[in-house]
Structure formats: structure tokens, C-alpha cells
Design a protein that fits this description.
Elements lengths: L1 H14 L3 E5 L9 E5 L2 E7 L18 H19 L5 E3 L2 E3 L3 E7 L2 H17 L2 E5 L5 E5 L11
Parallel strand pairs: 3-6, 6-7
Antiparallel strand pairs: 1-2, 2-3, 4-5, 7-8
Length: 153
């Protein structure tokens, strides 16, 4: 689920020397993971592999392939909004502009396929991508690069 993906990628960055500033759970609004990383802010949009909302008729069930594709598309669409300041990000009540951006998703064939389809675009933009196995192991597919000043809100 999304909470496990977010927690795993946060722990991954802590092991690499980052400081977790925010880790949202249970579908709370806002940036899922915010990490103080390399003198800047890394904002990660996490997506899961199944419904974690108790009110959902599909609660606890794995996402269909279509739902995973929609989830990936939503994450990719949010990155430019966050980067440009259209979707605001807050730490301790203060708005920040991220220095690095990325997406973390479960390590599934469907999410890997979606990544392969848009890898070149994500590389060009400098967005990071992490795949998280069921056991919490994180694999970095793309390392995030600093967002250029001219693209920041």
C-alpha cells in the first residue's frame, strides 16, 4: 500500500543521510514524503498497489492494471505542479519550493512498464524514481537532479 511505499523510501533516504521532515499516512493531503537532502528539499509522491481507504469497496484489494496506470499518471502529472508552485508544499506551516522531485511506487510489472514508457521524459526533467519491493527494499531507477531555478514557482 501507499503508506508502506512512503515509509520504505523515507527509511532509504535516512540510511543515506537524509532527514525526513514529513511522512504522510492514510491518504492525508499534501506531499507524501519530504526529506532534507543535499542542502535542499526532496519531495516524493508515493503511490501504492492497492486501496487503503476503509470506505472503499475495494479496501485491502490489489489495484487492477488500469488503476496502477491511473495512479502512475496522477503521480507524474503532479510533479510539474509541485515544481512550479501550483501545488503548494509546506513544512512546519511554511511553504517551500522543492529542490528535487520524485516518485516512489511498488515494484510491479505494471509500474515498471509505465516507467519504461516515460523514462526519457523523467530523465530529461531530472525526476527521481524508486521502486519498492514488498519486503521494503528500495531500488533507485533514476536519481533526482536539482530542479533548475527557471522552472521553480
Amino acid at each position: 500500500m501507499e503508506d508502506e511505499v512512503a515509509a520504505s523510501v523515507a527509511a532509504y533516504f535516512e540510511r543515506k543521510g537524509g532527514k525526513v521532515l514529513q511522512l504522510l499516512t492514510k491518504g492525508a493531503p499534501g506531499a507524501d514524503v519530504i526529506i532534507k537532502w543535499q542542502e535542499g528539499y526532496l519531495v516524493i509522491e508515493a503511490k501504492g498497489g492497492g486501496s487503503q481507504k476503509p470506505s472503499s469497496a475495494r479496501f485491502g484489494e490489489a489495484f487492477t492494471r488500469l488503476k496502477m496506470q491511473q495512479s502512475w499518471d496522477a503521480a507524474v502529472a503532479q510533479l510539474p505542479q509541485i515544481e512550479g508552485g501550483k501545488k503548494r508544499v509546506y513544512v512546519d506551516g511554511n511553504m517551500i519550493l522543492p529542490d528535487y522531485l520524485g516518485i516512489a511506487v511498488p515494484d510491479t510489472p505494471t509500474y515498471r512498464m509505465m516507467f519504461d514508457w516515460c523514462r526519457r521524459r523523467l530523465e530529461f526533467l531530472g525526476d527521481g524514481v524508486w521502486f519498492v519491493e514488498q519486503n521494503g527494499t528500495v531500488h533507485e531507477a533514476l536519481a533526482p537532479r536539482l530542479v533548475p531555478a527557471e522552472r521553480r514557482g
